């Protein structure tokens, strides 16, 4: 039976690259995003992949609205008959001093990065339980989840929240044979920085960046291996280790980067 993956945030960045990678690997792909025009272009690109490849189902939904995500899952079941993998990729960044930041920006980060992931999981899990043979949830977090991150505190905290959820949820869902992977992604070249909320300067980072396609390849591998935590690069493992050993120093370096 061909596996089915539902990907949120599929219109751009990591989500879009993941949709292409999983379709290329033969998965049936349901791509969820707010921008149907972007999804339509993605559908055309997937249709032009060398055969054999998986089909693509474009679905407009907003992860901050639980009803639209539930409906997207139902459409996925109607089209493909099952749901095996959820990639919770939709997210947004914010930079700037926490006290001075516009509350609308802070609230949008919390609603998208936290509520959006929870809504996606709560809609997907019942669908995975239907067949009784399990499933896999990949939560796209960030190496920032482990960082002391002045001027990016809201974003980092939102990622710390979903990383914590991933580890607890893994134990809750184990009896249902649904695995959960916490994917800690480092800096990636996407539209993310250009779309980031807040007043922080959009300057080029000195940190090495991955392509979205590299991340997508890592997600495909993670979906097959079912590891508990995935960090894609050695450099990002060093960041996580550095924060564990020297959080004060890492915080000072982050302050220079994010301010």
Give a quick set of tags describing it.
259 residues, alpha/beta
Which helices and strands occur, and which strands form pairs?
Elements: E1 4-8, H1 13-24, E2 28-33, H2 36-47, E3 56-60, H3 66-80, E4 85-88, E5 94-95, H4 103-129, E6 135-142, H5 153-173, E7 178-185, E8 188-189, H6 192-195, E9 197-198, E10 210-211, H7 212-225, E11 229-231, H8 234-245, H9 247-258
Parallel strand pairs: 1-2, 1-4, 2-3, 4-6, 5-9, 6-7, 7-11, 8-10
Helix pairs in contact: 1-7, 3-4, 4-5, 8-9
Low-confidence sequence ranges: none
Report strand order across the widest sheet.
3-2-1-4-6-7-11
User: What is the N-to-C succession of helices and strands?
Assistant: EHEHEHEEHEHEEHEEHEHH
Question: Helix- and strand-based class?
Answer: alpha/beta
Strand fraction equals: 15-25%
Percent helix? 40-55%
Q: Using the alpha-carbon principal axes, give the shape.
A: globular
Distance between the termini: 50 Å
Integer-rounded radius of gyration: 18 Å
Number of E-type strands: 11
Global mean pLDDT = 90
Largest sheet: 7 strands, parallel
Give a brief description.
The chain has 259 residues and is an alpha/beta fold. The protein contains 9 helices and 11 strands.
């Amino acid at each position: 039976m061909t596996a089915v993956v539902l990907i949120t945030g599929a219109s751009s960045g990591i989500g879009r690259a993941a949709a292409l990678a999983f379709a290329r690997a033969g998965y049936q792909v349901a791509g969820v995003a707010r921008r149907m025009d972007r999804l339509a272009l993605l559908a055309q690109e997937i249709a032009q992949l060398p055969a054999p490849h998986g089909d693509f189902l474009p679905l407009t939904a907003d992860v901050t609205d639980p009803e639209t995500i539930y409906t997207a899952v139902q459409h996925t079941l109607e089209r493909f008959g099952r749901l095996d993998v959820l990639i919770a990729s939709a997210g947004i960044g914010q930079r700037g001093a926490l006290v001075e930041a516009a509350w609308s920006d802070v609230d949008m980060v919390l609603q998208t990065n936290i509520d959006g992931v929870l809504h996606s999981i709560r809609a997907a899990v019942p669908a995975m339980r239907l067949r009784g043979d399990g499933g896999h949830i990949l939560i796209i977090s960030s190496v920032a989840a482990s960082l002391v991150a002045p001027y990016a505190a809201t974003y980092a905290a939102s990622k710390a929240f979903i990383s914590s959820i991933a580890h607890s949820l893994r134990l809750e869902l184990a009896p249902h044979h649904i695995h959960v992977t916490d994917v800690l992604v480092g800096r990636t070249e996407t539209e993310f920085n250009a779309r980031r909320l807040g007043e922080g300067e959009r300057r080029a980072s000195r940190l090495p960046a991955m392509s979205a396609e590299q991340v997508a390849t890592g997600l495909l591998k993670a979906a097959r291996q079912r590891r508990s935590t995935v960090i894609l690069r050695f450099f990002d493992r060093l960041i996580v280790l550095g924060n564990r050993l020297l959080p004060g120093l890492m915080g000072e370096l982050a302050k220079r980067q994010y301010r």
